[in-house]
Design a protein that fits this description.
The complex is a heterodimer. Chain A is an alpha/beta fold. Chain A has one domain: Glutaconate Coenzyme A-transferase. Chain A has seven helices and 14 strands. Chain A has a ten-stranded mixed beta sheet, sandwiched between helices. A two-stranded antiparallel sheet of chain A has the order 6-7. In chain A, strands 8-9 form a two-stranded antiparallel ribbon. In chain A, helix 1 packs across helix 2 and helix 2 packs across helix 7. The longest helix of chain A has 11 residues. The two termini of chain A are 17 Å apart. The relative contact order of chain A is 0.16. Chain B is α/β, with parallel strands linked by helices. In chain B, the strands form three sheets. In chain B, strands 1, 2, 3, 6, 10, 11, 12, 13 and 14 form a nine-stranded mixed beta sheet that branches. In chain B, strands 7-9-8 form a three-stranded antiparallel beta sheet, covered by helices on one side. Chain B has a two-stranded antiparallel sheet with strand order 4-5. In chain B, helix 1 crosses helix 2, helix 2 packs parallel to helix 3 and helix 5 crosses helix 7. At the A-B interface, helix 3, strand 9, helix 4 and helix 5 of A face helix 4, helix 5 and helix 6 of B.
Chain lengths: 255, 300
């Protein structure tokens, strides 16, 4: 069966969600993953959008996370202050999805700038948005990103959102309530933190090799003793993605 | 004092060179008409604040209205980079001040409540703390733990677009309500534009929907379609095609200038802008009604 790297990541990210989870949904691929999970194994997923929408049931896939289709038929719509305080800071969100230009060895994320000088950015990125709070306060976080060396440096240029900071115990010391990035989904497989907080390769997608992952990671990537293989993408999952969620292929074609 | 006025007069009277302007909204009800009027009146050195600066700030920066932006996410929502603001920052032509969403919104909440600052829990975003000295830590006197604090934001002018308001500025908003209420209370002056001006009795029929009371509003302007290419829930859809088109327009300074010449400087007001957009666009953005169940407040 033929599928794109994007489809492979979305399907595997969707499978991480549990039925009944309250998930803070990001735009693009995480949005696809959540909507796929809701249409397959997690019908009781509650989708929260940082625009202040709770329990969205979009009739079609929104372009942005503030589209009107998210509002019509939702359970509740609240202010941004409420969504970030009562919902996220208070601890009412189970899962956050994150992405970023760079993710480092300890799962810290950079979405702010490329370069070493904040005042003179080489490339200026959009900035945190709500990512800083999601990474700190959601009970668990997942990161989705293609497996490329430039995206996985040893250390991020700028720490926008906290992973395990300097290593295991870093989050507790900083007073963060959530568990942090317990899984990174790439187009090659999964990375998860070991007991030191360092991301190591724990699973491969069918047909991918550990060598490919090692070559495309910016630090000396360790491989778990019991490396798993992910379940193949099913026709059912692809059909929902292609026919219901993204018929024009905006999100599915890319890496 | 009658508050109902033209948008031209409201901008002329309440927006001055050098002001901090907060044109509110999270994707929804973005006050494009007011932004275009500010460009037409050639305001300079504005500080443009908004959690999510989008196309209207790109256009205002391109038109030379701004000296600085204050933001928490700078992007073309759902499309990608906010090219003009980004390029001005990269070239060192535009000053900026940056927060996370919650940091930015907490600043407004403090401003709205008349507090000097607002605490928030730690996020361990220490690089941002180093980059922005206004983000500070204080010790919680009850637990002894450190919390993050951000100072109140009190813009000179808030611009808010609402679905409906009465002539005194009592405004009903529904759908995504972002930070509109907070910024209206935080700002020194409030310019309110509305899709419809309704009788006060309509506002009184559903008081829970009144986000903004008229007595904090400086000017009320009837501007149907003011949010395009953004949307007004229940009135018209988001013009996603334009958001995608802007990605190309904003990549080329000549195309950007041509856009401003044709669609901002080249029209007198929003009515003329819509005439130019044409009936076909209007039809395309129309939405089928989905009316909420009626609420019974009871006669007492």
């Amino acid at each position: 069966m033929d599928y794109s790297s994007a489809e492979l990541m979305i399907v595997n990210a969707a499978r991480l969600l549990k039925d009944g989870d309250v998930v803070f949904v990001g735009v693009g691929q995480p949005n696809m993953a959540c909507n796929l999970a809701k249409r397959t194994h997690a019908p009781n997923l509650t989708m929260i959008y940082e625009a202040g929408v709770i329990g969205a049931e979009p009739a079609h896939l929104p372009l942005s996370i503030g589209d009107p289709t998210l509002v019509s038929g939702a359970l509740s719509v609240v202010s941004m202050y409420d969504i970030f305080s009562n919902y996220l800071q208070r601890g009412n969100v189970d899962v956050g999805f994150l992405g970023g230009a760079q993710i480092d060895r300890f799962g810290n994320i950079n979405a702010t700038l490329i370069g070493s000088d904040y005042a003179h950015p080489k490339i200026r990125l959009p900035g945190s948005g709500g990512a800083q709070e999601i990474a700190a306060w959601a009970n668990r976080c997942y990161i989705m990103t293609p497996h490329q060396k430039r995206r996985f440096p040893e250390k991020v240029d700028f720490l926008t959102s906290a992973g395990y900071l300097g290593g295991a115990g870093g989050r507790e010391k900083a007073g963060l309530r959530g568990k942090g990035p317990i899984g990174v989904v790439t187009d090659l497989g999964f990375m998860q933190p070991d007991e030191t907080g360092e991301l190591i390769l724990t699973a491969l997608h069918p047909g991918k090799s550990a060598q490919m992952a090692i070559e495309n990671t910016g630090w000396a990537l360790k491989v778990a003793a019991h490396l798993q293989t992910t379940q193949p993408v099913t026709e059912h999952e692809l059909k929902i993605l292609r026919e219901e969620l993204d018929p024009t292929g905006i999100y599915l074609k890319g890496g | 004092m009658p508050k109902l006025t033209s948008l031209q007069d409201a901008i002329a009277q309440h927006v001055h060179d050098g002001d901090m302007v907060y044109a509110a909204g999270f994707t929804h009800l973005i006050p494009f008409a007011a932004g275009h009027e500010i460009i037409r009146q050639r305001r300079k050195n504005l500080i443009l604040a908004r959690a999510t600066p989008d196309l209207i700030y790109d256009q205002m920066v391109a038109a030379g209205c701004a000296q600085k932006v204050i933001f928490s996410y700078m992007g073309n929502p759902g499309v990608g980079s906010l090219r003009i603001v980004r390029s001005a920052i990269e070239k060192g032509e535009l000053d900026w001040e940056e927060y996370s969403h919650f940091g930015m919104i907490s600043r407004l909440q403090a401003g709205a409540a008349g507090l000097p600052f607002m605490p928030m829990n730690q996020t361990a975003a220490t690089d941002l703390e180093s980059a922005n000295p206004l983000i500070q830590r204080v010790t919680d006197p009850y637990s002894g733990r450190e919390v993050i604090v951000v100072p109140a934001l009190t813009p000179d002018v808030a611009i808010v677009h609402a679905q409906r308001a009465d002539a005194n500025g009592n405004a009903h908003l529904w759908g995504i309500i972002g930070e509109q209420k907070e910024v209206a209370f935080a700002a020194k002056r409030v310019i309110l534009t509305a899709e419809e001006i309704v009788d006060e009795s309509v506002i009184r029929s559903d008081p829970n929907r009144t986000m903004i009371p008229g007595f904090i509003v400086s000017a009320v302007c009837h501007v149907p379609g003011a949010a395009h290419p953004s949307y007004a829930q229940g009135y018209y859809d988001r013009d996603n095609e334009f958001y995608l088109a802007w990605d190309k327009i904003s990549a080329d300074p000549a195309l950007t200038q041509a856009y401003l010449d044709e669609w901002v400087y080249g029209v007198k007001d929003r009515a003329e802008y819509w005439q130019k957009l044409g009936a076909e666009k209007l039809t395309k953005l129309q939405v089928e009604a989905r009316v909420s169940a009626a609420v019974n407040y009871g006669k007492y």
